[in-house]
Amino acid sequence: MKILFLFFIFYFISKSFGNYIPVPKDFKCSKESLIYTYGSGDAYFSKWSFTDSHYDLPFDCLNDNRSVTCTAEMNGENAKMLHGSISTCVIDSNGALVCESISLSKKYYPNPIIEGEFKPLTKGGQTSLKGYYLAFGISSFFTILPDTEVEFQGSTFKKSFDATNILLDYQGGCGPKTLQWPNGFNFTFNHSNPIINNASSDNRSLIVTGSNFCNSSDYVNIFIDSIQIDKLNIISIDHELFEVKYNQQYCKSIVLNIVSGDLDSNKFQFDYKPLPLKINSIPKSKGGSIIITGERLSSQINNSLVIVNIGQNECKQVISSKNEITCNLDSITNGSISNNLQVNISINGIVNDNNLLFSFDVPFISDFILPQGEVKLIGDCFGTFQSTQVYIDDILQSNLTISINDKQTTLSFTPLNQIKKSKLYLIVNGTKSNVVDIDSSFYVKSIPSSPSVIGQIVNYTLYNINPSNYNSLPTIILKDNSTIKGIDIKDSFEYSTHSYSFQIPKGCGRNEISISIGNQTSRTEFYYEQPIIRSCSTNDNQLINCLGNFTNYLNYYEDDQIKIIFLNSSKYNFLESNLLDFKFDSFSFQLNKQFTSNQIYLNVCNQLLPITNIEFTQTPQATKINTIEPILNDSSKHENNQNKTNNESIGSIGEVVSEKDQIQKYCASLI
Q1: What is the mean pLDDT of residues 485-491?
Q2: So which residues are the signal peptide here (predicted)?
Q3: Quick check: pTM over 0.85?
Q4: In angstroms, what CA-CA distances link 320 with 65, 132, 275?
């Protein structure tokens, strides 16, 4: 009986309170209104009170005996006030107004209406979320699934708080995220698209700056020219910078983009520009060969357009490789600016932006060797024997006889006394060169000075050997780093100056070598012997035929290392290989019409041999005999000694223009 009594009491209480709790059958939300529909005779909400903003939202309700429709008009102003906790006023089933703490079930909260894009930065920061019904029942933060809180900026208890434009203190992230409201409504958003603003490079990596890159390689894919970079090559990544291992040895443009959190960036073009780092100097009055060293000085594209300008002067006949550009710069008139000229290199339209300056007539010693006991300086702008002074340990060497080649790139002299651990520099026309450390006390001489191209035993005499090295055997180190061991020929018991034999391998042209014994090293050079041309003749058809012994040079001809060179005015023209008939005892070639003003050379491994003493079966009227300086085998004779003359006759066919200076320049370029 007691249990039955309690049941009726509980039923009565539940039924009574049930009259106060509205249960909408339907509700609709828009930016213009909130519309809730109830059953006829059911309780319904007549007003919502937002305690944080102290704002009441009334409903206008219409009963058509089938249902009750309650509408709250909405606009931008009252929508700002709808935030925080909610209390309600209810018209119960008996028509009575009840304003008690009857909460609104979260499932009847209006769904948020998001306006515009919500795309926060991946690094986070102040972010605005705009729309309607954003903070219904929410006082201080949103929730990003699964459990990350995103706090509001500003107090919701102030009237100035705007529930249609909520500032969030977003902590950042990568990839898609989901906001969840108390009524279970989910809104999935992604971050702002990554933007690449700039890029730079060093010798090992590419460094890119911008925004929204994320801070984890798990969320990103990086592409260069549409090829994805292996994630193992990502050195570092943060929201505004990433660095990848990437090295480009050629001048070119690349297209870079990043996909971050499934969002693609802009396509950013980055130019790997030519980077000239060093340039030689040349005589202003003569012009000459410019050598520029650096990085990315060529392109992988065939037939690339490479333009070199030095100041306002174009450098011609450009030859480029990855790390070097050579070109010819003409002589400049005295009135032109000759110092601190900007060096500009354009490769397929990509121009260097570093500041490399060029000046004429700056003497510079880059190296020295000791051939046959001489000192041979190698460098630029050595002047002439009249204008150049040699200083050793700040003392002018006034009694030296110096020899300087025409291009002013080598200077040779025989020291009056051996130079030991000294400082050497030049003064050329009043301009001082750099200072180099030099020691010529340990040097070598060879017999013969020019070995055969098929290889030959050559005796080298080593001078001023240290006593600690008497029991050592010398070694020759060739340019390819191969070595040749010397053999003591035991012609003397004097070991401070001693001779050794070396089996020089077959080869051709000029060779720079080092000879070491113990802890002493001397650098020198030798030239393989050139062929001997006994005689040359021409017939009525101007076919030139030369006799001699060329057996040892057939292999070099087959390797395209033997050519005929014509000098046409100031141009050098190589006869096509198939027009030269080269045999063991003769060679012949046709003097073509385009080579009617010539001096003629046999180029053997970049060493020039004049074709002299041509006998004519019938001398044309325009034929003249010219004199030029011969190119000899001995290394000391490869210099164009400017304080002496040594002429030899040469025959030439057709109209002849004197081009002695041009020949000297070309010959010097091969030394």
Answers
A1: 93
A2: 1-18
A3: no
A4: 95, 66, 13
